[in-house]
TrEMBL record:
Domain Aconitase B swivel: 176-405
The enzyme's E.C. designation: 4.2.1.3, 4.2.1.99
Entries under SUPFAM superfamilies matching the protein: Aconitase B, N-terminal domain, Aconitase iron-sulfur domain, LeuD/IlvD-like
Keyword line: Iron, Iron-sulfur, Lyase, Metal-binding
Organism name: Paradesertivirga mongoliensis
High-level lineage: Bacteria, Pseudomonadati, Bacteroidota, Sphingobacteriia, Sphingobacteriales
Domain of life: Bacteria
Protein name (database record): Bifunctional aconitate hydratase 2/2-methylisocitrate dehydratase
Domain Aconitase B HEAT-like: 6-162
Keyword Protein transport carried by entry: no
One GO MF term attached to the UniProt entry: 2-methylisocitrate dehydratase activity
Keyword Iron applies: yes
Domain Aconitase/3-isopropylmalate dehydratase large subunit alpha/beta/alpha positions: 410-894
Length: 923
């Protein structure tokens, strides 16, 4: 009874934290519980029954396997449990979603007892999470003349698992709750520093927003028991920053509905809104749970009598309220009319929230069930040799005769699944696409594993070219939380078929490389579609979409994703980049010039940025695509010249070979297969058979932005503007300021160079600047700490080979040691250079953090409140984002440099240069 006693002890420990018993996923514990249920005199029997019925995780967990077999015994009469009748046992099996439960149901449906077989068949007809092994059994039984199998397959062909579901209510009453003013990042909903608890849904739920907000939500629910709480980003966008399933899980936990009475803490169907809508990647996650996302448009730009936007003294548009959504406002969502009402007053149209596809997600309780349902229906119709009955909304196929294709439209047309033969897709289409590369990161990976278990998946889809599980978000500190979670995650993903950063068997040196950098290397075809469990899944080859852990799981299991084909914004460049400028300044200037051109409207939001940056290789171009997540773009695409693309592919081949040499390839030789694909692609380009991807000359764009390099006269800094009187303007990435704004006297407490926004060139710039400063001043003295985290081990190895790492070691007061990794996060920094382990480090904010109230100058991508640095009493923490040379000089001086100091410090240094492509890259 040791395992059960340990569970009881854990229950007592959780009680002290205000938590319920942790859901059971292990076979050993559940087997003990079943033994206690069989023993009518056992003192733990009553609790054991509750744990068995209400607290066991479904899917392919080992506990689910034990539960399904015991329910089978009860149904067959081999076990008698008064509290669980055979009918109740069938009901419990119906909530287990797949894997062992489907096997048991098939055993019963295809068994000899006709009465039991019919009951099992009636349950099977409601299930959608069937895989090849399951459908193969049905197929064989059908071909052998089994009548029950025939009935099940006929039901699947008619998609009765969907058509017989309860219809969506015509009216949904909601009561509003303002979660925050301005953009609401997923870090507010699921803080990065609590990443370790994400797979423990109840525990993680306690970190959403604040304890006060949670209490207010509960109070609203008690006051309005017949209504659902809608969380709102007032004067902002909901869910910016990252594709965090845990954020939606938390919202659903507090304001959604239970998915099943027998699955604890798994809630679905949250309702969220934002004045400026929902961040695209966050909206995808809402769809996963069958929730509703609403673009409220409750504040608009005020106009004068001539229709011109009225601006304040700072040149910012003045907003006026169209209608109120103040906390406690009761509204009505009409799903048939697709309107939002306050009483009888119609407020806005909700057509975008209730497209045919989204209506299906809502009805089915999430997008997974629809994806699996479509596959199951297709299988059944094919087996019956009939046309697939039209049950689901057909793929939305938008086509404009005579109109050319943007780059993303070309990629979608190549990878689309199940569309009308010969149909050419344009923006606005909504289709299934094949996914070529998938990435899972370590702080969401445990949830991805849970999702894979819940959808009963056991192996990666054979149509995925390659998939990688990273270790970068937990690279900084090998603490007890990481030691408990990461080996378990790596083992699961390794067995599932992914290339893993750490080898569960310890056969190769662990790689903590930043996930986006690795994905950028293993994408070897610019026609690829990539899905990654992080918002910064933005590749310089192919088109990549940051996604929640559930969408990642779906892509791994099926090799597919369903998504709308976004509009594109074309970005080109003119003029000449000044010698003393870094490419990061071009990236920031792109956003600043775009906002200026369009009067503050972010035309990038929710769209694909097609950036004509063809003369930069993959590493350097990635600096731009990586930042597009902060531009609120749905994705980005680099249009590359043939020679540049070939060079990028050769670099990628070399890095994949290093992974192979380290022993990271698997039995299917996925990594070698990627090298072979790269060789084939290079040959196609060189021969002229298939040149690098370019858009058509007559492609249609939502907007076009021409970045004038001549206007970029000094380094640019993205500023969180923490003291802006307008709260909604704080912590956005839209405030881009020139270096001179700070007058050379803004105090800098800490500098950070690292994470995904830097490449080898940045490390070389750092080394050269340190040498220059020593030559100029006789020695290098830091007036503020400088933390450096290279993105990959490859970069470290290359720097060592080229002599630059020796330079960094010379000036460093700390250097990482993989043989003795840090066991605790750093809480204090001295005024020196820290060479930290490759990985995310401060950018992630879940392990390392700057001291509270610090002003940080960083190359990273995150300036959200509390991410890199938290507030101190009386002083706000702020994370300013800039180029590597600005960060270096700021830590040497302990303040922002003047433009004269900056120019002197970078003289003679080979900064990341950019020249626009030699010609317009278009068909």
């Amino acid at each position: 009874m040791n395992t059960y006693k340990e569970y009881l002890q854990e229950i007592e420990e959780r009680k002290a934290q205000g938590l319920h018993p942790k859901p059971i996923d292990g076979a050993e514990l559940l087997s003990e519980i079943i033994t206690q249920i069989r023993d009518l005199s056992n003192p733990y029997r009553e609790d054991s029954l509750k744990f068995f019925i209400y607290n066991t995780l479904p899917g392919t967990t080992s506990a689910a396997g034990v539960k399904a077999e015991f329910l089978k015994e009860i149904i067959l009469g081999d076990a008698l449990v008064e509290e669980i009748t055979p009918a109740f046992a069938f009901d419990l099996l119906s909530h287990m979603k797949g894997g062992p439960s489907i096997k048991v149901l098939l055993d019963l449906a295809l068994g000899e007892n006709i009465s039991i077989a019919k009951e099992a068949a009636s349950i099977l007809k409601t299930q959608v999470y069937l895989y090849d092994a399951d459908t193969d059994r049905l197929k064989e039984a059908f071909k052998n003349g089994n009548q029950i199998a025939k009935e099940i397959i006929e039901s699947y062909a008619q998609a009765e698992f969907f058509t017989k579901l309860r219809e969506i209510p015509e009216e949904i009453k909601v009561v509003t709750f303002i979660a925050g003013e301005g953009d609401i990042s997923t870090d507010l909903l699921s803080p990065g520093n609590q990443a370790h608890s994400r797979s423990d849904r109840e525990l993680h739920g306690k970190c959403m927003i604040s304890l006060q907000a949670q209490a207010e939500i509960r109070a609203l629910q008690q006051l309005h028991p017949d209504k659902q709480v809608m969380l709102i980003a007032e004067k902002g966008t909901m869910g910016v920053g990252s594709s965090r399933m845990s954020g939606v899980n938390n919202v659903a936990l507090w304001a959604g509905k239970p998915a099943s009475p027998y699955i604890p803490f798994v809630n679905i169907a949250p309702i969220v809104g934002g004045t400026n809508g929902i961040s695209p990647i966050f909206l995808t996650t809402v769809d996963v749970t069958g929730g509703i996302g609403i673009d409220l448009k409750n504040w608009v730009k005020k106009q004068d009598a001539n229709g011109n936007v009225i601006r304040d003294e700072n040149g910012e548009p003045v907003l006026e309220q169209v209608y109120s959504v103040a906390t406690g406002t009761v509204l009505t969502i009409n799903t048939k009319k697709k309107k939002l009402y306050n009483g009888e007053q119609e407020l806005i149209d909700l057509s975008k929230s209730f497209t045919p596809q989204k209506m299906e997600f809502i009805k089915a309780g999430g997008s997974y069930a629809v994806v699996f349902g479509k596959k199951l229906q297709t299988f059944a119709a094919k087996l019956l040799e009939i046309e697939t009955p039209l049950v689901f909304a057909p793929s939305k196929e938008i086509s404009h005769e005579g109109q050319g294709l943007t780059a993303v439209e070309k990629i979608f047309n190549k990878n689309a699944v199940g569309i009308t033969s010969g149909k050419v897709l344009h923006a606005g289409s909504d289709v299934r696409v094949q996914v070529n590369i998938v990435g899972s990161q370590d702080t969401t990976g445990l949830m991805t594993a849970q999702e894979l278990e819940s959808m009963a998946a056991t192996t990666i889809s054979p149509i995925v070219d390659g998939a990688y599980q990273s270790g970068c978000h937990t690279a900084s500190v090998w603490d007890k939380k990481a030691q408990a979670n990461i080996p378990k995650l790596m083992k699961f993903m390794n067995e599932f078929g992914l290339i893993t950063a750490r080898d569960p068997k310890g056969a190769y040196h662990s790689m903590t490389d930043v996930i986006h950098k690795v994905l950028n290397d293993i994408v070897v075809d610019e026609w690829a579609i990539i899905i990654g469990g992080d918002s910064h899944t933005r590749m310089s080859k192919g088109v990549a979409f940051g996604a929640d852990s559930g969408t990642v799981a779906l892509a791994l299991a099926t090799g597919e994703a369903s998504m709308p084909l976004p509009e594109s914004v074309k970005v080109t460049f003119e003029g000449e980049m000044k010698d003393y400028m870094d490419f990061r300044d071009v990236v920031h200037a792109t956003q600043a010039q775009m906002l200026q051109k369009f009067g503050g409207e972010n035309v990038f939001q929710g769209r694909v940025i097609e950036v004509h940056i063809g003369t930069l290789t993959a590493d350097q171009a990635f600096t731009f695509t990586d930042w597009t997540a902060e531009m609120k773009a749905k994705a980005s695409i680099c249009i590359s010249e043939d020679d540049t693309l070939i060079e990028s592919l050769e670099i990628a081949k070399g890095r994949i070979q290093i992974m192979i040499d380290k022993g990271m390839d698997n039995e299917k030789q996925v990594l070698q297969g990627l090298i072979n694909k790269a060789d084939k692609r290079i040959a196609e380009i060189k021969s002229g058979e298939k040149p690098a991807l370019i858009p058509d000359a007559n492609a249609k764009y939502y907007a076009e932005v021409v970045v004038n390099l001549d206007l970029i006269g000094e380094p640019m800094i993205a500023d969180p503007d923490v003291n802006n009187a307008d709260v909604s303007k704080r912590y956005t990435h839209d405030t881009i300021r020139p270096l001179s704004f700070y007058g050379g006297d803004k105090k800098v407490d800490l500098g950070f160079i690292g994470s995904c926004m830097v490449h080898k060139g940045d490390m070389k710039i750092l080394a050269q600047m340190l040498k220059n400063i020593e030559q100029q001043k006789g020695k290098v003295e830091f007036q503020a700490p400088l933390v450096v985290a290279p993105p990959t081990y490859n970069i470290v190895d290359e720097l060592k080979a080229e002599g630059d790492w020796d330079v960094l070691q010379k000036y460093a007061g700390f250097e990482f040691d993989d043989n003795a990794p840090k066991a605790a996060a750093r809480t204090q920094y001295e005024k020196m250079l820290y060479l930290e382990r490759p990985g995310c480090n401060l950018c992630m904010g879940n392990q390392e953090k700057a001291a509270k109230g610090d002003t940080v100058m960083a190359t990273s991508t995150r300036l959200f409140q509390g991410r890199v640095v938290e507030d101190a009493e009386g002083k706000k923490g702020e994370s300013l984002l800039s180029s590597t040379p600005v960060v270096v000089l700021s830590t040497i001086l302990g303040r922002t440099p003047t433009i004269e100091e900056y120019k002197a410090a970078v003289e003679g240094i080979n900064l990341t240069k950019f020249a626009p492509p030699h010609k317009m890259l278009m068909n």
